[in-house]
Specification:
- 2 copies of one chain form a homodimer.
- Chain A has a domain of 77 residues: Winged helix-like DNA-binding domain superfamily/Winged helix DNA-binding domain (Arc Repressor Mutant, subunit A, Orthogonal Bundle), CATH 1.10.10.10.
- Chain A is elongated.
- Chain A is mainly alpha-helical and 150 residues long.
- In chain A, strand 1 and strand 2 form a beta hairpin.
- Chain A has a two-stranded antiparallel sheet.
- Chains A and B meet through helix 1, helix 4, helix 5 and helix 6 of A and helix 1, helix 4, helix 5 and helix 6 of B.
- Chain A binds a DNA duplex (30 and 30 nucleotides) through helix 3.
Chain lengths: 150, 150
DNA sequence: CAAAAGTCTATTATTTCTATAGACTTTACA
DNA sequence: TGTAAAGTCTATAGAAATAATAGACTTTTG
């Protein structure tokens, strides 16, 4: 039941890209800068950002002075979207996935106890991940920093 | 964020072993029988049941007429216990695991937004998995069967 | 045009997952 | 008492997913 490194790195990069800079709004950042600040292998991050770009969550600017920036306001991007792009369906077993349903091989799906429970688990996870936006996350971080006097 | 096959098979086997037979209480079953009824590769299931036995959740009887049976009442075994034995910690990232904590490489754990959210996700998952017992599952299955007239 | 930056595809390395093999031990019972 | 039925245990093979690296290419700015 673990998030992959790809997913973890992607989320951390997106959160960083959503963090308001000195001017108050999220800034454009270069791959290099993100990888250094978050301890992510540069070339691996490159692939991840590209995937997020191709999925429409990021835009980029090529050439000197270029970089990546959010394609939409941070309040319109959920963690669930990001994880699904990088790691696939959130469901713990395929037979409870909304998007990527597949039978799981149990004798009778209609009365499968495991399926019933995993359905609930999936619901509990998506209730958080599909509701929490990048803005929610950066606000929580700011609040915590203020609380700790950082 | 997926349950492994090992975990899935183990849970299905345990649920079957917890299901009351004709005499009203959970029966002793042989590996062969479980693997046939649940479509699980026999030799793989063997390893899984052995792990669950060594962890104290199952007892076994060797020799002719032997088999596996629950080491405790079904109401005292939770799905969370089973998954942790077979798949390791439930936490989506190691830095929010209670049992298997490891730092995750973020610049500052105290103000890490991803960590805060994943902490909530972990809590939501364990709220279900550490509360749901094998008995809960078999009862839900029976109720569903009754509802469908099976 | 040169340097900085993203794009894209391929490949390798590592790990985890899934499964199989096979020799061994215990038990029941004919 | 010996044989067949069952679990025990360790090793390892095969396959798939994950993680990471490489390198050639394109775009942009000055």
């Amino acid at each position: 039941m673990r998030l992959s490194k790809r997913g973890e790195y992607g989320l951390r990069a997106m959160i960083l890209l959503a963090t308001p800079g000195p001017e108050g709004r999220p800034a454009m950042l270069q791959i290099r800068e993100i990888s250094e600040r978050e301890n992510i292998p540069t070339k691996f991050l490159e692939q991840i950002l590209l995937a997020l770009k191709n999925a429409g969550l990021l835009h980029s600017k090529m050439g000197v002075g270029g970089g990546y920036y959010l394609a939409k306001p941070a309040c319109e991007i959920t963690l669930g979207q990001i994880i699904r792009i990088l790691d696939g369906p959130l469901a713990p077993v395929k037979c409870v996935s909304q998007v990527a349903y597949e039978p799981c091989g149990c004798p009778d799906e209609a009365t499968c106890g495991l399926r019933m429970v995993m359905f609930d688990v999936r619901a509990a996870m998506t209730a958080i991940l599909d509701k929490t936006t990048l803005e929610d996350v950066t606000k929580r971080m700011q609040a915590q920093k203020a609380l700790l006097g950082k």
